[in-house]
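Contributing new complexes? Match this layout with threonylcarbamoyladenylate.
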Amino acid sequence: METGTDIKKAASLIRKGGLVAFPTETVYGLGANGLDPIAVAKIFAVKQRPSFDPLILHVGNPEMARELFAQPDNMVVKMLMQHFWPGPLTIVAQKQDIVPDIVTSGMDTVAVRMPDNPYALDLIREAGVPVAAPSANLFGRLSPTQSQHVRKQLKGIDYLVEGGQTRIGLESTIVSVEEHGLRLLRPGHITTDQIREAIPGIVIRSAGENEDGNKIQAPGQLKSHYSPEKPLYIFRHTLQNPGPSAGVILFTMHPGNQMHPGRTIILSPRGDLLEAAANLFSALHEMENDPLVGEIHIQAVEEKGIGIAMMDRIRKAAHRHQS
Ligand code: TXA
Ligand code: MG
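Output block (do not edit by hand):
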């Protein structure tokens, strides 16, 4: 596939109904004109998604979002955009009619975000349309944080914007705007504490919780997701007797973490959770590609701040290998 940094060309391909993979600050996205249902359908074909999952529309500025949300002047929507855009926060709210059903899976809400990456912003502004983009991986596989991860997985893309390694490395936080306040649909770099700080007094419920604290079904919340093609196991403190084909992913250098003789990757030598999060998917891709690695063991991190989103992704990646 053609790869480069010709944003004018990439934008014109988007306008013509083509598919362009591009970097955001979170992960690489597989983009198409979000107002063109046929272009959007190509995304599902290339990703081999078995069913139509709703997609995020990416905008180049908050004004573009005004045409997508039914109530763009809703105070909570406005405050979220002001505080967190451009950035890794996706806002789900009632949609306007111009948003095609294929983007929302027929729901009356739409997910929108303004990414904080110069290539992504140039591309969207130059194309002049909201860009629908899921992560640029095959269905159920690892999200891409480097262009080579996209190339490894996807065929049939018209252009790949080369933007190096993505800064954050975990998909955006998703919140939906509801009557009671907000619902957290996916944890990410932006934490619920940061949102509470930005909007004092806001009520934030978790994905599976109603007014009585009972469980509900939220869309797009598959348990297994983002999986590497090798068995993945989570360990807490130390790993007991890893076999010769074990690939080990450690959070940091620590006296308790003996280096085992096989393959070991340290996510953040200086013990910084943000750096570890940025390297998580790359480490999993590397282990997946390494012919000497038969199974992957990954160390759990503390569930604080970005650690909540990291453990969410790690558990989903490991889910199909748990009994
Ligand atoms: O960081 C990100 O968000 C990346 C980059 C490319 O922007 N994109 C991404 O897209 O992670 P994707 O398709 O892999 O995940 C989008 C999630 C899905 O779980 C989907 O179910 C949810 O957003 N979603 C989209 N529209 C929704 C809606 N109207 N209501 C509820 N969930 C929605
Ligand atoms: Mg994804």
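Reviewers usually confirm one structural detail per submission. For this one: The chain has a mean pLDDT of 90.
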